[in-house]
From TrEMBL:
<dbReference type="InterPro" id="IPR001478">
    <property type="entry name" value="PDZ"/>
</dbReference>
<dbReference type="InterPro" id="IPR036034">
    <property type="entry name" value="PDZ_sf"/>
</dbReference>
<keyword id="KW-0645">Protease</keyword>
<dbReference type="InterPro" id="IPR043504">
    <property type="entry name" value="Peptidase_S1_PA_chymotrypsin"/>
</dbReference>
<dbReference type="GO" id="GO:0006508">
    <property type="term" value="P:proteolysis"/>
</dbReference>
<feature type="domain" description="PDZ">
    <location>
        <begin position="145"/>
        <end position="215"/>
    </location>
</feature>
<dbReference type="InterPro" id="IPR009003">
    <property type="entry name" value="Peptidase_S1_PA"/>
</dbReference>
<protein>
    <submittedName>
        <fullName>Serine protease</fullName>
    </submittedName>
</protein>
<dbReference type="GO" id="GO:0008233">
    <property type="term" value="F:peptidase activity"/>
</dbReference>
<keyword id="KW-0378">Hydrolase</keyword>
<dbReference type="Pfam" id="PF13180">
    <property type="entry name" value="PDZ_2"/>
</dbReference>
<comment type="similarity">
    <text>Belongs to the peptidase S1C family.</text>
</comment>
Length: 228
């Protein structure tokens, strides 16, 4: 996450002539960088609960103007993304990567991620920020959750094609042929939705998984393990 008017170098951040010792954590999937700064705490921007309902709303960008969330991006150039990005159209220039985008209450709802045009770009939803912060604050490192399911990208629905033997999903009772309806709080309509939901899995944290098996809908609790 870029910090306004700060420079990072050799394990510290420099701001207005001050040097602050800092640890650096990188999420290789989202490419989000988190700095854990030692020393006196400064005022932090609050984080919104989630960006799940942000599409269609106005976003605010300090020093740049306003923007509007116009939709979710699940793939680029035919390649499936490891997590869904937010598409944002800006009223003026696109902010630099790492700039916080806030909602009407001043809470961070997304982080500018990539420019796609003179007035448009992609952003990481605040859910990604919170997911990485949970790891950093809880375990001091970034980890990925794994439940041992395989799905076909070409399928029109998120249908399980294989459950790895001995995996958390096998232990919980998920079966090949099950169609995933929900993973955690996220509803799934296709393969990309499943990939996005798997990003938010946390090792050791039981996750409710709702599946359709034949004519039945079943709720199963699956506890991910750390992905090696």
């Amino acid at each position: 996450m870029a910090l306004s008017e700060m420079q990072a170098e050799a394990g510290c951040l420099r701001s207005s002539g001050r040097e602050l010792p800092a640890e650096v954590f990188v999420d290789p999937v989202s490419r989000l960088v988190v700095f854990h700064v030692s020393g006196p705490a400064e005022r932090a921007l609050p984080l919104a609960p989630s960006a799940s309902k942000v599409v269609g709303t106005e976003l605010h960008v300090k020093g740049v103007g306003a923007g509007k969330a116009t939709g979710w991006v699940k793939q680029l150039n035919g390649k499936m993304l490891p997590l869904s990005l937010l598409k944002v159209d800006y009223s003026s220039s696109v902010p630099r990567a790492g700039t916080p985008l806030t909602d009407a209450n001043g809470a961070v709802i997304a982080i500018a991620h990539q420019t796609t045009g003179a007035h448009s770009g992609y952003a990481l939803p605040v859910d990604v920020v919170k997911r990485v912060l949970e790891d950093v604050q809880g375990a001091g490192r970034v980890s990925r959750g794994w439940i041992g399911l395989k799905l076909l990208p070409q399928s029109t629905v998120p249908e399980v094609t294989n459950v790895q033997e001995g995996s958390p999903s096998a232990t919980a009772g998920v079966k090949s042929g099950d169609v995933l309806l929900e993973v955690g709080s996220r509803r799934l309509a296709d393969y990309a939705d499943a990939v996005n939901a798997f990003y938010y899995l946390r090792p050791g944290v039981a996750t409710p998984v709702r599946v359709k098996r034949g004519a039945q809908e079943l709720s199963i609790s699956v506890t991910p393990v750390e992905k090696k």
